[in-house]
Structure formats: C-alpha cells, structure tokens
Amino acid sequence: MQTNIDKIREQLLTTHAELKKRVNRIHDHARNPLNADSAEQAAELTNLPVVSALETEAMEELADIENAIHRLEAGTFGICITCGEDVGAKRLAVRPASAECMDCAELRR
Q1: Domain limits at 43?
Q2: Secondary structure (DSSP) of 92-106
Q3: Which pTM value belongs to this model?
Q4: Cβ distance 65 to 86 under 8 Å?
Q5: How far apart (Å, rounded) are the C-alpha atoms in residues 88 and 100?
Q6: What would the pLDDT profile of 51-105 be if each residue is shown by its tens digit?
C-alpha cells in the first residue's frame, strides 16, 4: 500500500507543478497590455472569458490536489470526507485528488 501512496503522492505533486505553471502563464498573459492593433485587441478581449474559465478550473484543481496532499500527510487519504467510507482504489487511480466516494460525489451533482 505504501508504494501506491508514494506513487499517488508523486502524481499529485507532478500535476500540482504543471497546474502552477499554467496559472502563472495565465497571470503573465493577463499582465501584458493589449495589442495596439484594434483587431488583435478584439480577439484578445474575446478570449478573456475562456482564459478566465481555464484559470478558475486550474485553481480549483490546485486546491483539490493540495487538500489531497494534506490528507496524505494526515493519514486520512482514501477515506471519504463525507461518509467516512473508503473512496475506492479505482476512483483514486482515475482521480487521485478525490475526496469523496462515488456515492457521495454523485449526491453532490
């Protein structure tokens, strides 16, 4: 089991680093002034909602990963935060940051 935990920790940390890079690129892009060309400005302004949505999604995933890392450190990783049951190895293999079992996650939808 420790090997799986180590592998999951490594996967979480790798994904975390990739998401941080993505968010930093988004922030760097946002700090750049708009292009002087009005057609380019229009295209850049059209992209703002998409870029904002991507940033929001990345930030939410970062928070999920950070919470999963805290659960690893606390020894509660793999335990559903809602019902206290096992999250399930298959679910964690697909989404290592999962905090809830499938039943509780489905109830939230």
Answers
A1: 2-77
A2: HHH-TT--S-HHHHH
A3: 0.79
A4: no
A5: 9
A6: 788 899 999 999 999 999 999 999 999 999 999 999 999 999 899 999 999 999 9
Cβ-contact 78, 57 below 8 angstroms:
no
Residues 53 and 26 in one domain: yes
CA angle, corner 109, sides to 72 and 106, nearest 5?
A: 60
Query: Are 83 and 108 found together in one domain?
Result: yes
Whether residues 71 and 88 fall in one domain: no
Amino acid of residue 37: D
pLDDT for 52: 84
Structurally, the chain folds into a number of domains equal to 2
Task: State which amino acid sits at residue 53.
Answer: A
Is 92 found in the same domain as 70? no
